[in-house]
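ok so I'm stuck.
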Amino acid sequence: MTVGANQHPVAVHSSKPHRYNKAVRIILWVVSLLVLAFVALVIVHHFEGGKKTAPEPIKITITTATAKKGDVGVYVQNIGTVTPVYTAVISSQVNGEITAVHFTEGQLVKKGDPLIDIDARPYQATLLQAQGALERDENILAQAQMDLERYQKAWAQNAIAKQTLDDQEKIVLQDQGTVKNDQGTVQYDEIQVEYCHITAPIAGQVGLRLVDPGNVVQSGENLTQPLAVITQLTPITVIFIVQQADISQVAPRLSAKQKLRVDAYDQDDHVKIDSGQLLTLDNQIDTTTGTVKARAIFDNKNMGLFPNQFVNAHLLVTTLRGVTLIPESAIQQNGQSSFAYVIQDNVAHMRSIKPGVSDGGMTQVDGINPGEVVANSSFDKLQDKSEVAPTTRPATPTTNQSDTNSSNAP
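replied:
not stuck anymore, here's the structure
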């Protein structure tokens, strides 16, 4: 068909590009939704996976102790000094040269054992002279007594004057006095000879040797250098002080003749050295310190107590029966208050307690019942309601965690 010259051609528009753009938009929306769904799935999976892999709470490993019912002693404690029952400072009673020393340093001697010999020859010579004078005067007395007997017979026959008999009686008395004087001189010289052979006056231990053979010694009370010192070691005593407030607990039992046990511990108050018995209290209180001295006696068979040694004396006054006991190491402090961790279903529960007397590492407490389990270690990690894992391993030494646990205390 022929188009006219004055006719314009008609433009024909196709719908294909429009459909194409719509399809692209749909695809983009679908992809966007898929991306959002994928992101959401990843996030959900991450949180679910996090919940599944979250670590369980860590349980604190602890050692435990079980509260028990028992007896505990009530003690009066204070520092004391070991004091021998007897101490002999040996000095010479005569002047002379030492001829022999029979002991060694630190030797244990018995009463009467020889210690030191001093040259006795001058004293033996003096003794011999005294014995000769005594023998002479005894014979003079015997002669005077024979004359007296003859005068008495003669007087009975009126053969002599009464004055002659009286004079002879007085002569006999004079001679008797002379003999007694000679006997005293002999005894004195015998003692001087005995003083030349010094023996142990008591049983005990000899100290360091202070003299040697050949030394010249002198007698006298003011000498500063003794010949030897002997100290009795078995038995031995400890003198310690008791506070005025505790006398009312001790004195009545002592007056009733009760045997009160005293334990002697070392200077650090950790190791018991020996056990003994209270002997007596002093008869007056020291007003400057408000204390009274007490003396206890110990057998000291193991020689653990040494003269002038400082010890800690523990006087057992009474015994509490049937009380609740826990280890002293299980008690924690928060200022003036005390508490312990009671374990129930593997959970530590902080509980306030009231501790009492302690003995042998165990303490009497109120607030815990016999049979309950308490924590005895790892106090630096424990808090109220902490989950724990008890173990049977021995507890390591711990101290009261006052500062660590102060914020956890009730």
